[in-house]
Amino acid sequence: MACAGPRRGPLWRSPRSARNGGCATVVALAVVTAVLSSTRPAGADELMADEEALDSETAAPSNAGVAWDPGWPSVGFGDYVVIGTAAASIAITSVIGPVGQTRRGGILMDEDVRDSLRLHSVDSRRRAREASDVMLSVSFAYPMFIDAVLVAGWHHDRADTAWNMAVIDLETMAVVASLQRLMNIVIHRERPYGRDCGSELDDASQDCDTDDRFFSSFSGHASQSFASAALTCSHHMNVPLYGGGPIEGLPCVAGFTLATLVASLRVASDRHYFTDVLAGAAVGSTAGFVIPWLYYGHSRQADDSGRRSPSWSATLVPTPTGALLQGAF
Predict the structure, then answer these.
(1) What digits encode the pLDDT tens for the residues 191-243?
(2) Which residues on neighbouring strands pair with residue 215, listed in sequence order?
(3) Where are the domains of the chain?
(4) Mean pLDDT for the chain overall
(5) Which of 9, 234, 278, 284 could lock 227 by a disulfide, CB 3.0 to 4.6 Å apart?
(6) Is the CB of residue 289 less than 8 Å from the CB of residue 232?
(7) What's the CA gap between 308 and 239, in Å, rounded?
(8) Kind of pairing between the strands at 322-328 and 313-319
(9) CA count, 13 A, side-chain hemisphere, 51
(10) 117: part of which helix (H) or strand (E)?
(11) With contact defined as beta carbons under 8 Å apart, do 329 and 312 qualify?
């Protein structure tokens, strides 16, 4: 999903651009927290303490397996540079209009797929477009805020894992969004609905009278949703967030199912051609697997039972009006 373009001529964006994927990636600087550290009460004697510890280990899953393996590199300065560079690239390309010759019409099987999937009424296409926006938001949030913050950070009490996962997620999304924005202005392909401007669509409407009309290739919705799905798979393949076993595959399958539905709705709403969403799916999936592999691809240490102290800690304290974040850095 590209940031909505300015009206042709002025070098500024319309307010509507804030709703788009590339801009959302810039704004979504991860606020990842680890929650309360707990202490276990001591027993009356050594034997009782050992028995209580054993019972506790048996009754509740340990979070030791969710700890960031010492054999994996942790995120650091280089990752923050990549995120910052990608954010700057998105900001710059958001004020640059399309360059080069405008490309119109589909290629390969684009027109046949459009005829098959495109919804016939303007209202139905608008609803499909809005549905894809909502689904993208869910897909975007899952690996960063559900898996990293809530599951790893809050449920498992692993600040180290939560922070590393969230930064990897943000880095991947930022890279994908910056590539998509760059391709939008370089390829300069008119969206499928562009042929209806001046007839079925008002030629003075925002869809028709902004540069966003020419940002069809490749699809930001498809690239971001498939990147989210691949990130979810990467995390669950390497960290037993849900306890390990076959259940770890469920979020992966659900993520790619949702991403496929998002991509299909982009064609049904006449926002993209089939090759636009296919390219977006390929770029997003590749980034979502390759970037986490740069961390998870390193060998685990033979003994990873020890816990390393995180470089920072934080606590969420409930208040009458919400919650207060307290931290030590």
Answers:
(1) 999 999 988 888 888 889 888 899 999 999 999 999 999 999 999 999 999 99
(2) 189
(3) 105-300
(4) 80
(5) 284
(6) no
(7) 16
(8) antiparallel
(9) 6
(10) helix 110-117
(11) yes
Higher pLDDT, 228 or 317: 228
pLDDT tens for each residue of 59-98: 444 566 899 999 999 999 999 999 999 999 999 998 888 8
Alpha carbon distance 308, 299 (integer Å) = 17
Cα 120 to Cα 109: distance, rounded to the nearest angstrom? 19
Percent of the chain with pLDDT over 70: 72
Q: Distance (Å, rounded) from C-alpha 96 to C-alpha 145?
A: 31
Look at the block and give the residue holding tokens 């008002």: 202
Which runs of E-coded beta strand occur in the chain?
313-319, 322-328
- Cα 207 versus chain centre, distance: 25
Close Cβ partners of 47 (under 8 Å, ≥ 6 residues apart): none
- 109 has a pLDDT exceeding 80: yes
Other CB atoms within 10 A of residue 81 CB = 11
Distances in whole angstroms, Cα of residue 113 to Cα of each of 85, 201, 245, 267, 284? 37, 21, 39, 8, 21
Can you tell me which residue has the tokens 């970037």? Answer: 291
CATH number of 105-300: 1.20.144
Give first-to-last CA distance, the chain, whole Å: 36
Two tokens at 158? 């692993």
